[in-house]
Amino acid sequence: MDYYEWLSGKIGILVKELEEQLGREFNYDLEVASGAARHSEAMMRHGTCYHAPKEYLGIVRVELINSAFAHYNNDSIELTIKKIAVDFINSPHHASLRRHSSIGCGLAIREIENGIVLFATLRLKG
Q1: Residue pLDDT, tens place only, 8-42
Q2: Predicted TM-score (pTM) of this structure
Q3: Mind listing the domains of the chain with CATH numbers?
Q4: What highest taxon heads this organism's lineage (predicted)?
C-alpha cells in the first residue's frame, strides 16, 4: 500500500469524529476533497499552515510518536486525527462547520525526529 492510499483511508476517521463531536452529518464531496488534499500537500511543503481562502480550514499538529509513520502505527495516527477534529471544532472558525453541509478533507504527513507532523485541511461547501 502506498502513502497516499494509506493516508486517504484515514480521512473517514476525521469525518466521523467531526460528525460525532458536532452531532450532525456532513455530505462528503470528492471534488471539494481534492482541493483540500492539494492544500494539505502545500502546507506540508511549506512546513506550516498558510493563508487560504475562507472555505479552507487548515490545522497543523505535531505529535511526538516513535517512528509512527515508518511503522504505520495506526493507533497513534488515528488518535492524532481525532485530536485534529477537536482542533477544527475549537478553532475560531467553528461556526463555519455548523453553516456548511458539505465537506472535503485532505491529509499530509511528514516524519520528523521522534515524531510526525500531520497537516490537515477541511474544506467547506454549501
Answers
A1: 888 999 999 999 999 999 999 999 899 888 888 88
A2: 0.81
A3: 3-125 (3.40.33.10)
A4: Bacteria
